[in-house]
């Protein structure tokens, strides 16, 4: 029996470790994956990535905002998840998830999101989660819909990449919708 709230059947969420730097550094070379999750940044040195990982490992949450590593139950680092824009007054937060390309389509992202959302709803009293998804990210759109998120809006021409502008979709899941899905 699993008694750890941060573990599921496939993955567990844990703090980012300084020793994770190499895996994150190698992932930085996947420009298409970076484009789907955020933006393509300028190249970072190994020292820069080591510094980033050390910083992540040494800092705690900023209020309820934090970044976590996603690893398989046998300890392989497969990605990361972040909770941000946490608003305790209104009970809302946003999340983002990134899975390293070789681990796509294994159910790791969906389980990581479920673990995160369960924690925020059942332990921190939040009542709504939102995800912003680029219109060209078919995998993320499918993930949101699989998890029961509802498309609430379309922000036109918000993302510029590959020489053109793209729309950004806003997906949301309320606590009551979450409870209905998890009966």
Automatic annotation (TrEMBL):
**Database matches in PROSITE patterns:** GNAT
Matching InterPro entries, A to Z?
Acyl_CoA_acyltransferase, GNAT_dom
Q: Which residues form the N-acetyltransferase domain?
A: 11-176
Record's keyword annotation contains Transferase: yes
**An MF annotation (GO) of this entry:** acyltransferase activity, transferring groups other than amino-acyl groups
Q: Domain of life here? A: Bacteria
- This protein's UniProt keywords: Transferase
Query: Quick check: keyword Transferase in the entry?
Result: yes
Q: What is this protein called?
A: GNAT family N-acetyltransferase
- Say which species the protein is native to: Paenibacillus selenitireducens
